[in-house]
Amino acid sequence: MMNEKTYGSATKERTYEKERAYLSPYAKKSEETAGRLRPETPCCMRTEFQRDRDRIIYSKSFLRLKNKTQVFFAPDGDHYMSRLTHTLDVSQIARSLARGLSLNEDLAEAIALGHDLGHTPFGHIGERVLASLCPAGFRHHEQSLRVVDKLEKDGKGLNLTYEVRSGIVNHTPAGKPETLEAEVVRYADLIAYINHDIEDAIRAGYLTAEQLPADAVALFGRHTSERINTAVLDICEASCDKPYVRMSEEKGRALDELRSFMFEHVYERANKLIQESAERMLGALYTYFVQRPEELPALYRGLIETDGRERAVCDYLSSMTDKYAVGVFKSLFVPREGSV
């Protein structure tokens, strides 16, 4: 009878064999990883990318995403996207693309699950506020890498593989993905937020389906599932057996048109509704904790000597959920009944 360790090793070796046999020559094989920042004893059963996926899912930062704004702050309804549901959406689309292109699904999934761990409360408006306050600036993709490298597990970090870390920090349009799996996540993020933000905007009354650009609708479809399916199929057709991941020129232009439309008609409008409140709350909290660093939680106080007071305060504020940020603001600045 096989013992647990022997069974696990055989399971992982079968995964390696399948990757060698079936993945594209352009895919990143699990056994080819460049490794971790700190050497660790390998898991007897899981590949390194599978291990990274599990570490991210069970991290505190991942759990907090459920209470962070995607676009609409405190919406009146239960079916709006949060940062967590967006992340799960990106993960699913990334796996579909990776499967269609014979890339490493585990690597794509791990990058997708970790790509927004450093996002602020109040969506991108929170990111803008912290960027304006912190002398070193603030960018959520860089903060996501900082979370997995330094802030998670009480300052120990998750010690993820190089490929997952690189994919996380390069998931934005300006990034330079080093693997096709990371490129897949960059497209999955774009496809996910445009299409489900359209759905949320229609639900919230910001626009109607009839207002969407007619040419883009004709190419992608009128419903969310149609648009996502069309985009995934187009990328697979344009990139199959190629050393790159891209959309066809026609579909790429149409997706850019939808993105521009959303920025003009939804994102800027939604941001204006919460901008003043977010600026007031985060600005007040930033000033308060910079002046009183001794009141920061222990993890963030410990960062002051190496990273500076302002960076530590930004780490703390960006970790907050919407509800927690509002609660801390109220506790510090809103007089309570009976107080003097």
Structure description:
It is a single chain. The protein has 340 residues and is an all-alpha fold. It has one domain: Hypothetical protein af1432 (Orthogonal Bundle). It has 16 helices and no strands. Helix 10 crosses helix 12 and helix 12 packs across helix 15.
- What is the name of the CATH topology? Hypothetical protein af1432
Instruction: Note poorly predicted spans.
Output: none
On the 0 to 100 scale, the average pLDDT is: 91
Tell how many strands the DSSP assignment holds. Answer: 0
CATH class categorisation: Mainly Alpha
Reported for the largest beta sheet, the result is: none
Q: What is this structure, in a nutshell?
A:
With 340 residues, the protein is mostly helical. It has a single domain, classed as Hypothetical protein af1432 (Orthogonal Bundle), CATH 1.10.3210.10.
Which descriptors apply to this entry?
16 helices; flat; 340 residues; mainly alpha; Hypothetical protein af1432
Structural topology:
Elements: H1 4-22, H2 48-57, H3 60-64, H4 83-100, H5 105-114, H6 123-133, H7 140-155, H8 162-169, H9 180-204, H10 214-220, H11 224-239, H12 249-291, H13 298-301, H14 304-307, H15 309-319, H16 322-333
Helix pairs in contact: 2-5, 4-5, 4-9, 4-11, 5-8, 5-9, 6-12, 7-8, 8-9, 9-11, 9-12, 10-12, 12-15, 12-16
